[in-house]
Amino acid sequence: MNLLERLNVDMKNAMKNKDKQKLSVIRMVKSSLQNEQIKLGRELTDDDSLTVLNRELKQRKDSLHEFEQANREDLASKLRDEIAVLEDYMPEQLSEDEVSEIVKETMAEVGASTKADMGKVMGAIMPKVKGKADGGLVNRLVQQHLS
After folding, report:
1. Distances, alpha carbon 57 to alpha carbons 24, 61, 123, 129, in Å
2. What is the number of helices (H) and of strands (E) in the chain?
3. Burial class (CB in 10 A: 0-12, 13-18, 19+), 82
4. Is 117 within 8 Å of 83 (Cβ atoms)?
5. CA distances (Å), 78 to each of 11, 61, 109, in order?
6. Of the residues 1, 10, 110, 126, which has the fewest C-beta atoms closer than 10 A?
7. Is the distance from CB of 102 to CB of 83 less than 8 angstroms?
8. Per mean pLDDT, which range of 8-12, 14-18, 60-64, 135-139 is the poorest?
9. Which long-range contacts (CB under 8 A, 24 or more apart) does 45-50 make?
């Protein structure tokens, strides 16, 4: 079952269960997926859908950080709930050790050894871990291994 089909099923269940929070998030994601489909002018692949989902999750995490800085617990709490709903649709996340192993393998593949090779390594790694690892974690591990 692809993401859109799963969202439709979950949306119906959220309506039946009167789960307004989940329903709102699902509608927002479906809207983003449809906007992306219109922008691309074709059906979305699973990779495209994952990109949209990642974007939505990142926006909420960034906003959550801002709300926590501003001591707006009311808004932060709402965003935590939205993030939890979105994370249900994300693929299982890789552990730090697994990401570290991928970083080492990729560095060997591209022949990276100095900080100057950072962009080359990141460009090769990100497609491999797309949706499965946080970009900040990948960036930190690449910097550790390159220094």
Report:
1. 14, 6, 21, 16
2. 7, 0
3. buried
4. no
5. 19, 12, 43
6. 1
7. no
8. 135-139
9. 46/2, 46/3, 47/130, 49/2, 49/3, 49/4, 50/3, 50/90, 50/91, 50/130, 50/131
- Strand, helix or coil for residue 87: helix
Q: How far is CA 49 from CA 32, 37, 77, 129, in A?
A: 9, 9, 26, 15
pLDDT tens digit sequence for 104-126: 888 888 887 778 878 888 888 88
CA pair distance 126, 134, nearest whole angstrom: 10
Dist. CA 15–CA 111, nearest whole Å: 52
According to the model, what pLDDT value does residue 18 have? 94
14 is written with which tokens? 């959220």
- In this prediction the pTM is 0.74
